């Protein structure tokens, strides 16, 4: 069991900028380490009764992988027993059926299969997943943006053709590096030839958007080797590229290696040894901008040939999400809920066994999560808007909260003083320097209440 070190809340940003820039990835707010058992359990029908349900996101979590990468802290189990996979798919159907009944009249306008690695499933199992979605959820997969996450060794043309036939129009593949030596350093048994074959299969299947993930900050990586990976990716003209800084977190493979070597790891705003990740980020950003890609966030870059986003409107700041599967999160405006969270194999296996033992009726309620205060609802909206372009829409904020964001969160003014953001009457947008410090700005906007809960969490 490891404590999560406390991220800074209500500190001056100028002080935090003296620390290394990579402090915490604010991909969701609040972080799942702020969740706790809900007592009593909350009825889903009551939770969703007063929520808009005509523009929801449906997310299915497949927590299985061929192997566990050294940097991964996602809820995932490597090489599960086949019987457990079969039981899991059956239980997902039970959960989706119970959840859809609790939602009542609803419509999903976004869909994603994530993990883990959804393509760890074989073709027939993937078909079963699409079938259960179409049986129980109000969604037209052919008419909404729909994505799937894959890893190179699990990709084959038969699976991808099935995905395309069933409506998948975006594939995201974690490559991390085209260098065999660098992926070995990440404790990832991957060969470049397999990556190239997987990319070719994605293209042959005719899926409109291919996203490739790369990591910078790998031990032994240089500016030249990182740019070589970017150039190798660009040779395949991906519609999207994500550049991720390497984080070494507790209980991951790399975290265990660091712990054995006496290094201190954690999710924290803290000083670290000499860190070249910012220089690598800047080099990678310039290479992609020169290639015509536009920067959407610190991590995300879109190609000029990427298809225009289509389908019904969905707003991540205000529209709900329904997560199905062990490890998936669901968001209403006032309460976020999920199953428990673990990283170590034993912890993940125990949580998964608990999920498999539930009866269908139990899925009609939420028993683990967090109720958001009015302040944290405002912070969530600001963080999710600010860290992605075009930025924080002030008029949209007023519509939701009947106040100006600079009055509710006066600390935002520090961004202007430090040259990290610009503002007009309609928009607050991070500058290029601000995007580079997104992993400091996100934790800086965390409330003291959430920071305390994260600090007190014990990770298994």
Automatic annotation (TrEMBL):
Keywords noted in UniProt: Iron, Iron-sulfur, Metal-binding, S-adenosyl-L-methionine
Residue ranges of domain Radical SAM core in the record: 50-299
Gene3D superfamilies for the chain: Aldolase class I (3.20.20.70)
Names of the cofactor(s): [4Fe-4S] cluster
Listed Pfam families: Radical_SAM
InterPro entries xref list: Aldolase_TIM, Coproporphyrinogen-III_oxidase, Elp3/MiaA/NifB-like_rSAM, rSAM, rSAM_sf
Keyword Iron appears in the UniProt entry: yes
PANTHER family assigned to the protein according to its UniProt record, in alphabetical order: COPROPORPHYRINIGEN III OXIDASE (PTHR13932), RADICAL S-ADENOSYL METHIONINE DOMAIN-CONTAINING PROTEIN 1, MITOCHONDRIAL (PTHR13932:SF5)
NCBIfam families, A to Z: PRK08208.1
Official protein name in the record: STM4012 family radical SAM protein
Taxon lineage: Bacteria, Pseudomonadati, Pseudomonadota, Gammaproteobacteria, Lysobacterales
